[in-house]
Amino acid sequence: xxxxxxxxxxxxxxxxxxxxxxxxxxxxxxxxxxxxxxxxxxxxxxxxxxxxxxxxxxxxxxxxxxxxxxxxxxxxxxxxxxxxxxxxxxxxxxxxxxxxxxxxxxxxxxxxxxxxxxxxxxxxxxxxxxxxxxxxxxxxxxxxxxxxxxxxxxxxxxxxxxxxxxxxxxxxxxxxxxxxxxxxxxxxxxxxxxxxxxxxxxxxxxxxxxxxxxxxxxxxxx
Length: 222
Ligand code: IYR
Hints:
8 helices, 40% helix, 222 residues, four-stranded antiparallel β-sheet, binds 3-iodo-tyrosine
Protein backbone atom coordinates (compact mmCIF):
# COMPACT_ATOMS: atom_id res chain seq x y z
CA UNK A 1 0.00 0.00 0.00
CA UNK A 2 1.63 3.32 -1.07
CA UNK A 3 2.10 5.85 1.78
CA UNK A 4 0.27 9.19 1.55
CA UNK A 5 2.44 11.91 0.04
CA UNK A 6 1.54 15.60 0.32
CA UNK A 7 2.51 18.79 -1.53
CA UNK A 8 1.55 22.44 -0.85
CA UNK A 9 -1.70 23.66 -2.44
CA UNK A 10 -0.25 26.15 -4.91
CA UNK A 11 -3.04 26.10 -7.52
CA UNK A 12 -5.71 27.73 -5.30
CA UNK A 13 -6.65 31.38 -5.90
CA UNK A 14 -8.72 33.53 -3.53
CA UNK A 15 -10.62 36.58 -4.86
CA UNK A 16 -11.96 39.60 -2.97
CA UNK A 17 -15.70 39.14 -2.16
CA UNK A 18 -16.88 41.57 -4.89
CA UNK A 19 -14.78 39.88 -7.53
CA UNK A 20 -15.91 36.48 -6.31
CA UNK A 21 -19.54 37.49 -6.86
CA UNK A 22 -18.73 38.92 -10.29
CA UNK A 23 -17.02 35.70 -11.28
CA UNK A 24 -19.87 33.55 -9.95
CA UNK A 25 -22.39 35.68 -11.87
CA UNK A 26 -20.41 35.65 -15.09
CA UNK A 27 -20.04 31.87 -14.85
CA UNK A 28 -23.75 31.41 -14.15
CA UNK A 29 -24.66 33.65 -17.09
CA UNK A 30 -22.42 31.69 -19.38
CA UNK A 31 -23.73 28.30 -18.33
CA UNK A 32 -27.29 29.58 -18.43
CA UNK A 33 -26.88 29.97 -22.21
CA UNK A 34 -26.27 26.23 -22.56
CA UNK A 35 -29.03 24.29 -24.27
CA UNK A 36 -29.30 20.68 -25.33
CA UNK A 37 -29.42 20.86 -29.11
CA UNK A 38 -30.80 18.32 -31.60
CA UNK A 39 -30.20 20.27 -34.83
CA UNK A 40 -26.52 19.83 -35.66
CA UNK A 41 -24.35 21.20 -38.45
CA UNK A 42 -21.90 18.82 -40.11
CA UNK A 43 -19.15 21.49 -39.97
CA UNK A 44 -15.92 19.98 -38.72
CA UNK A 45 -14.70 20.89 -35.24
CA UNK A 46 -10.99 21.16 -34.45
CA UNK A 47 -9.90 18.00 -32.68
CA UNK A 48 -7.64 19.99 -30.32
CA UNK A 49 -10.77 21.62 -28.80
CA UNK A 50 -12.24 18.19 -28.06
CA UNK A 51 -8.92 17.10 -26.52
CA UNK A 52 -8.88 20.14 -24.23
CA UNK A 53 -12.48 19.57 -23.12
CA UNK A 54 -11.63 15.92 -22.41
CA UNK A 55 -8.63 17.03 -20.34
CA UNK A 56 -11.06 19.18 -18.37
CA UNK A 57 -13.36 16.17 -17.86
CA UNK A 58 -10.36 14.22 -16.61
CA UNK A 59 -9.89 16.71 -13.75
CA UNK A 60 -13.11 15.53 -12.07
CA UNK A 61 -12.93 14.21 -8.52
CA UNK A 62 -13.48 10.46 -8.29
CA UNK A 63 -13.82 7.75 -5.67
CA UNK A 64 -10.32 6.89 -4.37
CA UNK A 65 -9.04 8.86 -7.39
CA UNK A 66 -9.67 5.82 -9.58
CA UNK A 67 -10.80 8.04 -12.49
CA UNK A 68 -13.18 5.30 -13.64
CA UNK A 69 -14.07 6.84 -17.01
CA UNK A 70 -13.21 6.25 -20.63
CA UNK A 71 -14.16 8.54 -23.49
CA UNK A 72 -14.48 7.11 -27.02
CA UNK A 73 -14.47 9.94 -29.56
CA UNK A 74 -16.18 8.79 -32.73
CA UNK A 75 -15.79 10.70 -36.00
CA UNK A 76 -15.61 7.81 -38.48
CA UNK A 77 -18.77 8.05 -40.67
CA UNK A 78 -19.20 4.26 -40.78
CA UNK A 79 -19.07 3.94 -37.00
CA UNK A 80 -21.47 6.87 -36.62
CA UNK A 81 -23.84 5.16 -39.05
CA UNK A 82 -23.65 1.89 -37.08
CA UNK A 83 -24.31 3.77 -33.84
CA UNK A 84 -27.24 5.63 -35.39
CA UNK A 85 -28.79 2.41 -36.70
CA UNK A 86 -28.41 0.61 -33.35
CA UNK A 87 -29.67 3.61 -31.36
CA UNK A 88 -32.67 4.14 -33.62
CA UNK A 89 -33.59 0.44 -33.34
CA UNK A 90 -33.54 0.73 -29.53
CA UNK A 91 -35.49 3.99 -29.65
CA UNK A 92 -38.15 2.62 -32.01
CA UNK A 93 -38.75 -0.14 -29.47
CA UNK A 94 -38.82 2.46 -26.66
CA UNK A 95 -41.33 4.79 -28.32
CA UNK A 96 -43.52 1.98 -29.68
CA UNK A 97 -43.69 -0.37 -26.69
CA UNK A 98 -41.40 0.19 -23.70
CA UNK A 99 -42.26 3.78 -22.76
CA UNK A 100 -45.30 4.20 -20.54
CA UNK A 101 -47.92 6.78 -21.55
CA UNK A 102 -46.80 8.94 -18.59
CA UNK A 103 -43.24 8.85 -19.87
CA UNK A 104 -44.33 9.77 -23.42
CA UNK A 105 -46.41 12.62 -21.99
CA UNK A 106 -43.39 13.87 -20.02
CA UNK A 107 -41.27 13.81 -23.19
CA UNK A 108 -43.87 15.58 -25.35
CA UNK A 109 -42.50 19.11 -24.63
CA UNK A 110 -39.13 18.01 -26.04
CA UNK A 111 -40.62 16.88 -29.36
CA UNK A 112 -38.36 13.82 -29.53
CA UNK A 113 -38.96 10.62 -31.46
CA UNK A 114 -36.96 7.58 -32.60
CA UNK A 115 -35.41 9.47 -35.52
CA UNK A 116 -31.79 10.42 -34.59
CA UNK A 117 -30.17 11.94 -37.71
CA UNK A 118 -27.75 13.99 -35.57
CA UNK A 119 -25.92 10.77 -34.66
CA UNK A 120 -24.55 10.92 -38.22
CA UNK A 121 -24.64 14.67 -38.89
CA UNK A 122 -22.63 15.85 -35.89
CA UNK A 123 -18.86 15.70 -36.37
CA UNK A 124 -18.23 13.92 -33.06
CA UNK A 125 -20.01 11.47 -30.83
CA UNK A 126 -18.33 10.97 -27.47
CA UNK A 127 -19.33 7.65 -25.95
CA UNK A 128 -18.65 7.88 -22.23
CA UNK A 129 -17.94 4.61 -20.49
CA UNK A 130 -17.94 3.96 -16.76
CA UNK A 131 -15.29 1.50 -15.60
CA UNK A 132 -17.34 -0.67 -13.22
CA UNK A 133 -14.17 -2.41 -12.02
CA UNK A 134 -10.52 -2.38 -13.00
CA UNK A 135 -8.65 -5.06 -14.90
CA UNK A 136 -5.23 -5.70 -13.37
CA UNK A 137 -2.14 -6.65 -15.40
CA UNK A 138 -2.12 -10.09 -13.68
CA UNK A 139 -5.66 -10.68 -15.06
CA UNK A 140 -7.23 -10.04 -11.65
CA UNK A 141 -9.82 -7.35 -11.03
CA UNK A 142 -10.05 -4.54 -8.48
CA UNK A 143 -12.94 -2.47 -7.21
CA UNK A 144 -13.74 1.07 -8.28
CA UNK A 145 -15.75 3.34 -6.00
CA UNK A 146 -18.68 5.71 -6.53
CA UNK A 147 -18.46 5.05 -10.24
CA UNK A 148 -21.75 6.67 -11.30
CA UNK A 149 -21.04 9.77 -9.19
CA UNK A 150 -17.50 10.08 -10.54
CA UNK A 151 -18.43 9.61 -14.19
CA UNK A 152 -21.46 11.89 -13.78
CA UNK A 153 -19.25 14.69 -12.47
CA UNK A 154 -16.70 14.18 -15.27
CA UNK A 155 -19.51 14.29 -17.83
CA UNK A 156 -20.85 17.52 -16.33
CA UNK A 157 -17.43 19.11 -16.60
CA UNK A 158 -17.13 17.88 -20.20
CA UNK A 159 -20.50 19.39 -21.16
CA UNK A 160 -19.54 22.69 -19.50
CA UNK A 161 -16.11 22.71 -21.18
CA UNK A 162 -17.56 22.08 -24.65
CA UNK A 163 -20.16 24.80 -24.11
CA UNK A 164 -17.47 27.20 -22.89
CA UNK A 165 -15.45 26.49 -26.05
CA UNK A 166 -18.44 27.45 -28.22
CA UNK A 167 -19.88 24.06 -29.15
CA UNK A 168 -23.24 22.47 -28.46
CA UNK A 169 -24.01 19.04 -27.09
CA UNK A 170 -26.84 16.60 -26.67
CA UNK A 171 -26.79 14.08 -23.84
CA UNK A 172 -28.29 11.03 -25.47
CA UNK A 173 -29.14 7.85 -23.56
CA UNK A 174 -30.62 5.14 -25.73
CA UNK A 175 -31.50 2.27 -23.43
CA UNK A 176 -30.09 -0.33 -23.40
CA UNK A 177 -26.81 1.06 -24.75
CA UNK A 178 -24.64 -2.06 -24.71
CA UNK A 179 -24.43 -1.96 -28.51
CA UNK A 180 -21.76 0.70 -27.88
CA UNK A 181 -19.43 -1.91 -26.35
CA UNK A 182 -19.78 -4.07 -29.45
CA UNK A 183 -19.42 -1.28 -32.03
CA UNK A 184 -16.56 0.48 -30.21
CA UNK A 185 -14.91 -2.73 -28.99
CA UNK A 186 -14.84 -1.74 -25.34
CA UNK A 187 -14.14 -4.41 -22.70
CA UNK A 188 -16.74 -5.96 -20.39
CA UNK A 189 -15.58 -3.97 -17.34
CA UNK A 190 -16.81 -0.78 -19.04
CA UNK A 191 -20.49 0.08 -19.27
CA UNK A 192 -21.82 2.82 -21.49
CA UNK A 193 -22.80 5.81 -19.36
CA UNK A 194 -24.07 8.11 -22.05
CA UNK A 195 -23.54 9.23 -25.60
CA UNK A 196 -22.65 12.90 -26.03
CA UNK A 197 -23.35 14.41 -29.46
CA UNK A 198 -20.94 17.31 -30.13
CA UNK A 199 -20.65 19.95 -32.82
CA UNK A 200 -21.89 23.31 -34.07
CA UNK A 201 -25.62 23.93 -34.14
CA UNK A 202 -27.31 23.92 -37.55
CA UNK A 203 -27.90 27.46 -38.84
CA UNK A 204 -31.63 27.17 -38.31
CA UNK A 205 -31.34 25.21 -35.05
CA UNK A 206 -34.36 25.42 -32.78
CA UNK A 207 -34.77 24.32 -29.19
CA UNK A 208 -37.90 23.57 -27.18
CA UNK A 209 -39.29 26.31 -24.96
CA UNK A 210 -38.41 25.12 -21.47
CA UNK A 211 -37.93 26.81 -18.13
CA UNK A 212 -35.52 26.15 -15.30
CA UNK A 213 -36.70 25.83 -11.74
CA UNK A 214 -36.17 28.99 -9.69
CA UNK A 215 -33.64 28.94 -6.89
CA UNK A 216 -36.20 28.70 -4.11
CA UNK A 217 -37.52 25.50 -5.63
CA UNK A 218 -34.16 23.76 -5.82
CA UNK A 219 -32.51 25.05 -2.65
CA UNK A 220 -33.18 24.84 1.09
CA UNK A 221 -30.99 26.77 3.51
CA UNK A 222 -30.96 25.20 6.94
N1 IYR B 1 -33.92 8.14 -25.17
C1 IYR B 1 -35.08 8.64 -25.89
C2 IYR B 1 -36.14 9.18 -24.99
C3 IYR B 1 -35.77 10.29 -24.09
C4 IYR B 1 -35.85 10.09 -22.74
C5 IYR B 1 -35.61 11.11 -21.89
I1 IYR B 1 -35.85 10.80 -19.91
C6 IYR B 1 -35.25 12.39 -22.37
O1 IYR B 1 -34.99 13.44 -21.51
C7 IYR B 1 -35.17 12.59 -23.73
C8 IYR B 1 -35.42 11.53 -24.61
C9 IYR B 1 -34.64 9.66 -26.95
O2 IYR B 1 -33.48 10.06 -26.97
O3 IYR B 1 -35.47 10.05 -27.77
